[in-house]
Write a structure and sequence with these properties.
Strand content: 15-25%
Shape: globular
Distance between the termini: 31 Å
Low-confidence stretches: none
Structural class: alpha/beta
Number of helices: 8
Mean pLDDT: 91
CATH topology: Lambda Exonuclease, Chain A
Strand order of the largest sheet: 2-5-6-7-8
Largest sheet: 5 strands, mixed
CATH class: Alpha Beta
Helix content: 25-40%
Number of strands: 8
Number of domains: 1
């Protein structure tokens, strides 16, 4: 068996177990494909994870260090000034916990009994105390990134909205306007010369978290049901499972 992929997790981490909680990424999995979500959280067999992109992690880490310098000094980052954002990085005793994977900001949702959680990249604060949720992204594209205008950006938008909702549940005043700090590795340099150069842009997104309560109730109904739900409309994983099953059945028929 692969040392990277462990399909069957400890039942303590499945729905109903003492360690289970509903992360931001699990909410997004449900929206994408209820069947994959159910197999993962109720039956305990997860999708194979995407391979970790260490370069992306390195960019995130360096951006955090850079903004933390301004957080400590209570100063405005040049990127904020460039885009006219009147804010500074937010100082709070829980900041490190909020940014830590598998911890993050947590909310006990009474209507479902779920502990909902998510780990943010950054939070900025306006002079009036309103918080701005910020997420770091990195890529390499020929064109400048100025908007979230592709279908696959929908997951980014939901990510932002879940974070905004989570901080509102903690009693914070949160702006609908969030920002993505986008680091785009340039490919038009004359040579590599042992380094990548990034163009960093600030992409605004006005969130709307009104969908979250309804989805949490649907997730509760899904997990409490004994029926395996329908496949997501565009789930490549389910499409592959079906295609592989069908071709195996056809192969067996030919052998009879």
């Amino acid at each position: 068996m692969s040392s990277f992929y462990k399909p069957h997790r400890n039942p303590k981490w499945n729905y109903g177990g003492p360690n289970w909680r509903l992360s931001r990424s699990k909410i997004d999995l449900f929206v994408e494909c209820p069947r994959c979500f159910y197999i993962d959280n109720r039956l305990g067999t997860a999708r194979p994870p995407g391979f970790p992109f260490n370069l992306n992690s390195a960019v995130d880490h360096l951006l955090k260090k850079e903004f933390d310098t301004h957080r400590a000094g209570k100063t405005t980052h040049p990127l904020m000034k460039q885009y006219g954002v009147d804010a500074v990085p937010f100082q709070h005793e829980s900041m490190d916990v909020w940014r830590e994977n598998f911890k993050g900001v947590e909310h006990h949702h009474k209507a479902t009994g779920f502990t909902v959680s998510g780990a943010v990249d950054d939070i900025w604060v306006r002079p009036d105390g309103e918080l701005i949720i910020v997420d770091y992204k990195s890529t390499s594209k020929d064109e400048e990134i100025t908007a979230l205008d592709q279908d696959w950006h929908d997951g980014y938008k939901r990510q932002m909205e879940v974070y905004q909702w989570l901080f509102r549940t903690q009693g914070f005043k949160v702006s609908n306007m969030g920002y993505f700090v986008y680091a785009n590795a340039s490919k038009d340099r004359k040579a590599f010369d042992g380094k990548l150069e990034f163009d960093v842009t600030l992409v605004p997104y006005e969130g709307n978290d009104s969908w979250i309560e309804g989805v949490l109730k649907k997730i509760k109904g899904c997990l409490d049901s004994s029926e395996i739900p329908e496949v997501g409309a565009e789930c490549d994983h389910c499409a592959y499972r079906k295609a592989a099953r069908d071709v195996q059945q056809e192969h067996r028929k030919k052998l009879l």
